[in-house]
Amino acid sequence: MVIREAGIIFRDNNLVRSIYVQKEIEIYNVYRTDLVNSLLNLVQDVFLTDIIEYLGGKEFVIAFIEDKIFVEDSVSNEPESLIIYCIFDNKKKVDKYVYKVVLPLLKKIALEFKATQKVLKSPNSFQTTDFKAKIDEILGDETKTIDQKLRENLL
């Protein structure tokens, strides 16, 4: 399975977004962010729980975790929601891949992000390029197709 995209959503906006493998049909960034937020809100409202880790479609799966971070400009002085997600190909044994590979990687991304941003000063001033490189490092080979992995091993 190949991770096609990973990112961090904060206050209904993509704070960080890394795209690895694109498909001809690309869902617009705004729609994707809205979709993730809507799904999480729906699950929380209908099922009265916030425990949902992934949703699978015919071709793709989106996995996500929710974490909290303190924000400097917050009115309530309460930590705010931070969604870390990734989109990957739907193949056999997706449950095993989600729980053994994807969710631990997403948790690591959340920990690294919070380590670099103890308190998120201003989401608008956050430097995404530095953290994109960190996400790339954390996800490593999971973002490469089989062809890419083979080419690297042959060189």
Task: Report what the structure shows.
Helix 2 (94-116) runs antiparallel to helix 3 (128-139). It is built from 4 helices and 6 strands. Strands 1, 2, 3, 4, 5 and 6 form a 6-stranded mixed β-sheet that branches. The protein has one domain (3-154): 2-Layer Sandwich (Beta-Lactamase), CATH 3.30.450. Helix content is 41%, strand content 27%. With 155 residues, it is an alpha+beta fold.
Topology:
Layout: E1 3-10, E2 13-19, H1 29-47, E3 54-56, E4 60-71, E5 80-89, H2 94-116, E6 119-120, H3 128-139, H4 146-154
Parallel strand pairs: 4-6
Antiparallel strand pairs: 1-2, 1-5, 3-4, 4-5
Helix pairs in contact: 2-3
Please give a handful of descriptors for the protein shown:
41% helix, alpha+beta, single chain, 6-stranded mixed sheet, 4 helices
- CATH C-level: Alpha Beta
H-E string: EEHEEEHEHH
Tally the structural domains: 1
Number of beta strands: 6
Please sum up the structure shown.
With 155 residues, the chain is an alpha+beta fold.
